């Protein structure tokens, strides 16, 4: 005769479930289902990081709620106060300039002369040339470095990573000094233009590499798998499928870095290259209009950077997913709409 041995009763729940009879919740048990089981003795509970991650996932991926009415009111008040403080600082600066005669018409009439305008435009064109040539070299070099960091070959990946991390850490001014003093001591002499361009290229290529790599990592994995399924190898997949999409995805970030590259050209004074800022410095020292020259050049840089920022916003709107959906929606409606 077979003897049946029943499990001892657990207070607050049935056997093996931790809940009440069936899977309900008795005293100390869980809710409906089997989720109310107590953790076994000796087993550690979830860590703080795991609980924060679970809470973040349940809250839509954010640890912070959007501001409520009071929060929005505080943000509005802080914005108004900041604008008032900025306006007060501008007013104080204008007042000080006026007290010291820096706003006199005689000091500004210089910038209406054709020779001065031509001189500043020459400096602006030098700045544009440095920016265009540096970008034309740094962008493809950055793309190659990004592909190297994503390569499966470990030596290639390690060397590309070493270059990127090193050049991102080295200040641009130090590289310019290396080209200015280090190369001539080794018997290598470059024109002033290239003494400024090559340090900018070396630094910005590393930054562009990280932008491209982030764009590649942001793409769905299915893009690469589909290319492999069609018979493409690694490098053709990156060149024909992945990299073009990464460029479109990172176009605003690339233009933002081009703005920084444009401002890097202001270090031309180190090598005595007459770009826009250095031209303004020479003009101000010659005619004793340092403040006026720098203010005019600052306005020019604001205009140029605003144009680049506007181009970045336009690209973001044209290449964004919402734009593509709007572009394809009318064709879908025309195909599916039935005549009345």
Automatic annotation (TrEMBL):
CDD domains associated with the record: TM_PBP2
Gene3D superfamilies xref list: MetI-like
Subcellular location per the Swiss-Prot or TrEMBL entry: Cell membrane
UniProt membrane topology term: Multi-pass membrane protein
GO biological process: amino acid transport
Pfam families noted in UniProt: BPD_transp_1
Family, as annotated: Belongs to the binding-protein-dependent transport system permease family.
This protein's name: Putative glutamate ABC transporter permease
Species, as recorded: Actinacidiphila reveromycinica
């Amino acid at each position: 005769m077979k003897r049946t041995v029943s499990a001892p009763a657990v207070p607050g729940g049935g056997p093996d479930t931790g809940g009440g009879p069936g899977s309900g919740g008795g005293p100390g048990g869980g809710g409906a289902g089997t989720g109310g089981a107590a953790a076994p003795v000796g087993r550690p509970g979830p860590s703080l990081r795991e609980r924060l991650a679970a809470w973040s996932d349940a809250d839509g991926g954010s640890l912070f709620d959007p501001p409520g009415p009071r929060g929005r009111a505080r943000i509005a008040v802080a914005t108004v106060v900041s604008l008032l403080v900025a306006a007060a600082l501008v007013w104080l600066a204008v007042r000080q300039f006026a007290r010291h005669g820096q706003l006199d018409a005689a000091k500004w009439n210089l910038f209406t002369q054709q020779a001065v305008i031509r001189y500043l435009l020459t400096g602006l064109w030098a700045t544009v040339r440095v920016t265009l040539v540096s970008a034309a070299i740094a962008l493809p070099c950055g793309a190659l470095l990004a592909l190297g960091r994503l390569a499966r070959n470990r030596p290639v990946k390690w060397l590309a990573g070493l270059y990127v991390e090193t050049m991102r850490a080295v200040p641009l001014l130090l590289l310019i000094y290396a080209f200015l003093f280090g190369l001539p001591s080794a018997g290598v002499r470059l024109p002033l233009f290239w003494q400024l361009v090559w340090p900018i290229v070396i630094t910005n290529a590393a930054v562009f590499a990280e932008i491209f790599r982030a764009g590649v990592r942001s793409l769905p994995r299915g893009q690469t798998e589909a290319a492999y399924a069609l018979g493409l190898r690694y490098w053709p997949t990156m060149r024909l499928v992945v990299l073009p999409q990464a460029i479109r995805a990172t176009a605003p970030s690339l233009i933002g870095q081009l703005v920084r590259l444009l401002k890097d050209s202001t270090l031309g004074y180190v090598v005595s290259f007459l770009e826009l800022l250095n031209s303004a410095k020479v003009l101000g020292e010659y005619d004793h209009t340092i403040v006026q020259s720098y203010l005019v050049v600052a306005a020019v840089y604001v205009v140029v950077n605003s144009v680049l920022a506007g181009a970045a916003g336009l690209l973001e709107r044209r290449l964004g997913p919402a734009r593509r959906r709007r572009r394809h929606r009318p064709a879908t409606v025309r195909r599916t709409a039935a005549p009345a």
